[in-house]
Each structure stands twice: as structure tokens, then as C-alpha cells.
Design brief:
With about 260 residues, the protein is α/β, with parallel strands linked by helices. Helix content is about 15%, strand content about 30%. Pfam families: Lactamase_B.
């Protein structure tokens, strides 16, 4: 089977997708090879589970659930998972966080980005370090960034900048190179790729799949990302969710997986 990725939930529905499938702003992927199946993110609610049933997919026996980070559009569907599911994520996954705006020196909360989840129902594996899953998969753990960008604030009395330190990615080691699966890419595509190369010792990037967080990127940021990807020369770029039309405009070779699609590598 090599590697197969089934898009259980994404912002849009794929061409020719069954009418019963739901699209939601968020991401949920079922990632499988011959011996391991991983549910990567759960979207904002139970839609991923409804779509899985409509696609004839049984999620009760996946090897693990991996949560890329603690934003509601990636872990909001966790309450729909069976009790005692094995979940792999960063220790900061449940921190309360908000989008925010600063004006005249005053920072105000705009929108809550985290969600309330009772993680005590599950077999939690919290780790900041890389973690092998099965024979060919690795959870990246924390992704180092020299100058992290703040995407919001944590809850509480003080406005502590939130650089999404809890974000990690799923890595698949194939004979053709690395397949890197991202939730949102908040930590930066270049930082993510270099971290994956460092922890695996594999420099060849075969594919990048998932959210690249480019929909509101500046032209200079887009130029840097495009130049970096041209240097890395991945064979496949599959950007969805927060990649946006703006990101796809700058990366004409990219494809846009949507709800109901099946990717094979």
C-alpha cells in the first residue's frame, strides 16, 4: 500500500466528493501504510467521524491519534474519539489561548483559539521530543525557531505571546525521501523541514502535505518560502486548509487536497 492519506475533513469538499460529506474550516487526515494507521488531527467538531463513516472507514482501531497543536480547528473533534484512544501531542496542547490585537499599547482578546477537552478519557502521551510511531512514522516533537512569531496570546491576566510552541508534525520515512504532514505550519515551513531533516538524518524531501499557513503571508515571506522550496525540490506539494488561495498563487506547482480526497505516495 505504501503511504495513503485520506482527507477526512478540510475546509472544502473535493471534486466529485459524496454529497453526504461535510467540509469545515479545519483539518483531519487518516494516514496509513502497510502496518500503521494514524489519525492526524480531528478538525473542529465531530464532522471528521461522520465523514469517516460515510467513506466506509472504521477509526476504532487506529494505531494512534496525533494532534498537531492546540487550536480548536485541529483538536475540537477529540471528544468524539473512543475512550482510551492513544493520543500523542505536546504537553501544552490544552493551554487556553486567544487571537489578540494590540492598540495603543493595550492588548485585547479577539477570539478564543483553544477548546475545552477532557483529555483524562484518553491514553495521553505528552512529549516535547521526537517519538517513533510504528516502523516508518515519527512525531517531530517541538520544532525550534530562532525568532518565533506570535500568533496570539495565552489566557490569564498577563498577555503572554503565543508562538505555537506546541506545534509538531508527522514524518513518514519512505524510500523516496521524507513525507512531512503539517497541521498549520505556524512554526514556518523552512523551520519544519530543517527540523525533520535533522532528527531523521534524511535530507531528501519527497512531499509536503497539509496546512502551510500562507493565506495572509506577506509577499516577502512568500518569496522566501518559494525560494526555500525550490532549493529543497520536493516532488509533491499538497497544500490545504490554511495554505489559502494566496499561497497557491505563489506556488503554482501545488495541489489542494480537500474533504474526501485520497492521496498516495
Amino acid at each position: 500500500m505504501a503511504l495513503r492519506i485520506r482527507v477526512l475533513l478540510e475546509n472544502h469538499k473535493g471534486a466529485g466528493a459524496d454529497k453526504s460529506l461535510k467540509a469545515r474550516p479545519g483539518l483531519s487526515l487518516l494516514v496509513e501504510d502497510e502496518s500503521t494507521s494514524i489519525l492526524f488531527d480531528t478538525g473542529p467538531d465531530g464532522s471528521f467521524m461522520q465523514n469517516a463513516l460515510a467513506m466506509g472507514i472504521d477509526l476504532s482501531d487506529v494505531s494512534a491519534v496525533v494532534l498537531s497543536h492546540g487550536h480548536y480547528d485541529h483538536c475540537g473533534g477529540v471528544p468524539w474519539l473512543p475512550d482510551n484512544s492513544r493520543i500523542i501531542c505536546h504537553p501544552d496542547i490544552a493551554r487556553e489561548r486567544y487571537a489578540a490585537m494590540t492598540f495603543l499599547g493595550i492588548t485585547r482578546k479577539i477570539k478564543k483559539l483553544s477548546c475545552e477537552v477532557d483529555y483524562s478519557r484518553y491514553r495521553m502521551m505528552y512529549t516535547r521530543d521526537p517519538l517513533p510511531i510504528g516502523e516508518n512514522f515519527i512525531w517531530s516533537g517541538e520544532i525550534p525557531v530562532v525568532a518565533p512569531e506570535a500568533y496570539g496570546i495565552f489566557g490569564g491576566h498577563d498577555a503572554e505571546p503565543d508562538s505555537i510552541l506546541d506545534e509538531g508534525v508527522l514524518i513518514y520515512q519512505s524510500t523516496k525521501g521524507l513525507v512531512i504532514i503539517t497541521g498549520c505550519g505556524h512554526r514556518g515551513i523552512a523551520n519544519i523541514v530543517r527540523h525533520c531533516q535533522n532528527i531523521t538524518g534524511i535530507k531528501r524531501i519527497y512531499a509536503l502535505v497539509g496546512g502551510f499557513h500562507l493565506r495572509c503571508a506577506s509577499p516577502f515571506t512568500m518569496w522566501r518560502v518559494r525560494r526555500f522550496l525550490q532549493e529543497q525540490k520536493p516532488e509533491k506539494l499538497c497544500g490545504c486548509h490554511c495554505t489559502g488561495a494566496w499561497g497557491r498563487l505563489w506556488l503554482p506547482e501545488i495541489t489542494a487536497p480537500a474533504t474526501g480526497d485520497v492521496l498516495r505516495f
